[in-house]
Amino acid sequence: MPVQAPQAEQLAAVDEAFRSLPDRYLGADPGFDSTYHICLCDLGHIWEVRCTSGAARVRKGATRRQPDVTISTDVATWLRLREGELSGIDAFQRRLLNVRGNLDHAVAFEGLFRLPNGRPPLLHIYDVPVGRHRISTLTMGHGPDVLLLHGLGGTRASLFETAAALSGSYRVHAPDLPGFGSSSKPALGAYDARWFAEIMLGFMDQRDIREARIVGNSMGGRVGIEMGLIAPERITALALLCPAVAWLRRGLHPIVRLLRPEFGLLPHGFRRSTVASQFRGIFHDRDAIDPAVADLIVDEFRRIYHSPGARLAFLASARNIYLEAPFGRRGFYPRLAELQTPAVFIWGSHDTIVPAAFGRHVRKWLPDAPQVTIESCGHVPQVECAEECNALIETFFADAERMRGKLREAA
């Protein structure tokens, strides 16, 4: 086992890494102004990094300026991040660092600086124009393209562990859907599956993505299905995690129709305890979720929901999911039967939002699609049962590609 460097030597290495940041700064969008406090707990020191559109300023110690983000980690992890041996998403996934404050700015930090020797950062945050909309996306890794689509009320953060797992073999794109996270929130958006799907296909055009595999959780799964239906030549595989398929029993249908999403434009919010309770409710084993991560996600939801546009998007999307017709000429299940893209349905055995029992309806209309139920799992298997869920996704994508290759050879 190597001998740990004395603290003075560690401090010198860290000081040098921080001193080099201004020269490696790539710049940011006009108007960007974010202050970061980097706490290296094993050294007991704090560095302040302020990033604006054209410059980064670094000082040892904290000023009275309130930080937008506080990142806490250890010396070894920080130096590995600066050398590009580890991405921030990987470190977050492995619980090697903690974050408080604006999660988007925290994730963006890594992409603001070149690595040593002029190498590009391991991940980027991009704002992608799609028509009149602006889609904020995280991109990392190299290889065939994969889109990760989050669920209702969530952001790309709910798919960070999947992004880290897949980025070794794929170029992963984790956008915030329009109306959510850091993407634009149009007041006149339809916020139904087709609207989301068309914008995501436009996003693919803007990013020069000819074809992609999709991982979609909950509402994101429904959007992925729609993309497969309207552009089957561009979607090569669908990994659907507790997807928001159409409800058959809709006893509240008349009431929900009367609840207009425009009410979201009126100022209101949720108490933190209410949001925390709802968040915990999507998991089966609540103890499996790191409390620090839970606090971060709850605070992020409340920060975003403060925006009238975000409230409207949330209510409109929820209303459209509930009101989608299951049957009829353009009903969900008859259309599902037309899906040509290879798809796997991954359910949680203890999901109370989209119960695994929905699988029997999917099987009736799409009998050849494999279905897997993860035991002791709630509504977000990519978080609660990340290792098992990610292994299922990777295996399915590999199987789908092998089958695709055989079909090409036969043709």
In words, what does this structure look like?
The model is unreliable at 251-256 (pLDDT under 50). α1 packs parallel to α2 (75-83), α6 packs across α7 and α9 crosses α10. The chain has helices at 7-19, 75-83, 88-93, 103-110, 160-166, 193-206, 219-230, 253-258, 272-280, 291-305, 308-323, 332-336, 359-365, 381-384, 386-410, and strands at 33-40, 45-52, 56-60, 69-73, 98-101, 123-130, 133-140, 145-149, 171-175, 212-217, 235-241, 343-348, 371-374. It contains 15 helices and 13 strands. The chain has 411 residues and is of the alpha/beta class. The strands form two sheets. Strands 6-7-9-8-10-11-12-13 form an eight-stranded mixed beta sheet, sandwiched between helices. It has a five-stranded mixed beta sheet with strand order 3-2-1-4-5.
Could you name the key traits of this structure?
globular, 19% strand, five-stranded mixed sheet, alpha/beta, 411 residues
* Largest β sheet strand count, sense and barrel closure: 8 strands, mixed
What's the order of the H and E elements? Answer: HEEEEHHEHEEEHEHEHEHHHHHEHEHH
Query: What is the share of helical residues?
Result: 25-40%
User: Which structural class should the secondary elements be placed in?
Assistant: alpha/beta
Chain oligomer state: single chain
Shape: globular
Strand content: 15-25%
Number of helical regions? 15
Distance between the termini: 56 Å
How would you state the average pLDDT, rounded? 91
Q: How many whole angstroms does the radius of gyration measure? A: 22 Å
* Low-confidence parts: 251-256
Q: Using DSSP, what is the number of strands?
A: 13
The main sheet orders its strands as 6-7-9-8-10-11-12-13
